[in-house]
Amino acid sequence: MAELKKMVVTTTIFIVTVLIMPLNSATLHVPTCRSYCGNITVDYPFALQHGCGHPGFRDLLFCINDVLMFHISSGSYRVLDIDYAYRSLTLHDPHLSTCNSIVLGRRGNGFSVEPWRSPYISASPNNVFMLLGCSAVSPLFQLLFFQGFADRHLPCRNVSGMGCEEYYDCPAWDWIGRSKIGSKFGSGPPECCAVSFEAIKTINLTKLQCEGYSSAYTLAPLRVDGPHEWSYGIRVTYSVQGGDEFCRACEATGGTCGYSDVDDHKDDGVKQLCMCGGSNSTSNCESGGSPSSRGPWSALNILAGFMVCALAWMTSHKN
Ligand SMILES: *[C@@H]1O[C@H](CO)[C@@H](O)[C@H](O)[C@H]1NC(C)=O
Ligand SMILES: *[C@@H]1O[C@H](CO)[C@@H](O)[C@H](O)[C@H]1NC(C)=O
Ligand SMILES: *[C@@H]1O[C@H](CO)[C@@H](O)[C@H](O)[C@H]1NC(C)=O
Ligand SMILES: *[C@@H]1O[C@H](CO)[C@@H](O)[C@H](O)[C@H]1NC(C)=O
């Protein structure tokens, strides 16, 4: 009976040693990449620190005086929200025309992403861009520009029920007058042309020779009633190329997701990394393949467990 009791105690010591010891050492030094900017949570695949997050989103977000900024080739935007469940962000450009004001003079950013980043970031298909006061010689109205598309009409169309016909009902147009923009072209181009990002791929006011732009989206599942109820801003969707299995496996083993250091803006050579306390792994914190890895079930810990166990067993037999 006493033998059995000793055996139970010894076995318990063994299990506790193997389980607790390595977990302690692993959780003590794991760096954290998750952070906040104002009241916005910045989490994978985004990050504010270099080396954290997914490499496709590096050098993208910056926190300046508690304001989260999003920086791409067309300019900087304020981030109003990051929706991790729907994989989207909402951006604000102060020179974006809304229902209450129209900004001309090509001051707006528009929206265009560096080619290397375009697989990761795009404007949402439900987002409408309304280009204002475009020149008659704008590439928008050149048939050749749209040669790849099925119809050879103007690319202007309603997107998710939002279009220029509705936008003209906004008070901003009372101030500016519809005739003020576009009228000099006579029967030329419309003063507003609504497009989807998909149709144009880059909203560059200089290249398209437009004076301004508006951008709107609606999150309501049903069509909302008129342009007063649209949300003005740029709705962006993001996607983690190759999936987020790498990061999920890393986090499941107590690691933090990041990437190896890079000094250029090319994708080659940038590797995802799992940061495991004092070491980095190219898979996860339990992998045996990498020499720098250390996991809760490493051979050394099991050996340590056995030794404690054997010691306890020998001690109990002496008595
Ligand atoms: C953050 O705070 C602003 C006001 O300070 C509020 O309008 C906004 O909804 C908040 N955003 C989140 C994600 O809580
Ligand atoms: C916009 O187009 C102009 C003229 O084609 C070009 O010089 C400029 O670099 C473009 N901007 C961006 C952000 O691509
Ligand atoms: C866009 O919607 C408005 C209102 O429903 C309609 O009058 C207009 O013809 C539509 N335009 C296009 C291009 O479908
Ligand atoms: C792990 O990688 C991160 C990001 O590149 C780096 O900052 C850190 O120094 C690396 N740690 C080790 C132990 O190599």
UniProtKB/TrEMBL annotation:
Q: Which UniProt keywords apply?
A: Membrane, Signal, Transmembrane, Transmembrane helix
Principal localization? membrane
* Entry GO terms, CC: membrane
User: InterPro entries under this entry?
Assistant: WAK_GUB
User: This protein's superkingdom?
Assistant: Eukaryota
Q: Which GO terms describe its molecular function?
A: polysaccharide binding
Q: What is the membrane topology noted in the UniProt record heading this document?
A: Single-pass membrane protein
In the record, which residues are listed under signal peptide? 1-26
Q: Does the keyword Ion transport apply?
A: no
Q: Which segments does the entry list as coiled coil?
A: none
Subcellular compartments: Membrane
Question: What is the name of this protein?
Answer: Wall-associated receptor kinase galacturonan-binding domain-containing protein
